[in-house]
């Protein structure tokens, strides 16, 4: 039996579409729109994506993949959390390190190590 591409969870009172690690990659705006559609159908306010579902281009800022994806989520008023270890990507790019730091200060895109930290951040943010 295959795992579902996502589950819907209540984290800190917020409906979240939690993506499984084996679903389609998040590597372009079309993939983002698919997740946004799933989230909207499920009534989710956030989408949590494991880092292994993000393509390498997502972490190469010069490709503008991350920017396009994040803009789609912002347009639909959905938050995006990338969950997992991105230290290898950050170590290779000062620009990405700055992007992650700034994103984590905001309320639209967070890079966090795991779902437990994500739930705690939702509580902390009052989401």
Topology readout:
Blueprint: E1 6-11, E2 14-19, H1 29-42, E3 46-50, H2 65-75, E4 79-83, H3 87-91, H4 94-105, E5 109-112, H5 115-125
Parallel strand pairs: 2-3, 3-4, 4-5
Antiparallel strand pairs: 1-2
Helix pairs in contact: 1-2
The average pLDDT value, as a whole number, equals 94
DSSP strand count: 5
Strand order of the largest sheet: 1-2-3-4-5
Question: How many helix segments?
Answer: 5
Q: Rg from C-alpha positions?
A: 14 Å
Helix share bin: 40-55%
Throw out a few tags for this protein.
5-stranded mixed beta sheet, alpha/beta, about 130 residues, 5 helices, single chain
Describe this structure in words.
- With 127 residues, the chain is α/β, with parallel strands linked by helices.
- Helix content is 42%, strand content 20%.
- Strands 1-2-3-4-5 form a 5-stranded mixed β-sheet, with helices on both faces.
- Helix 1 (29-42) runs parallel beside helix 2.
- The model has no long low-confidence stretch (mean pLDDT 94).
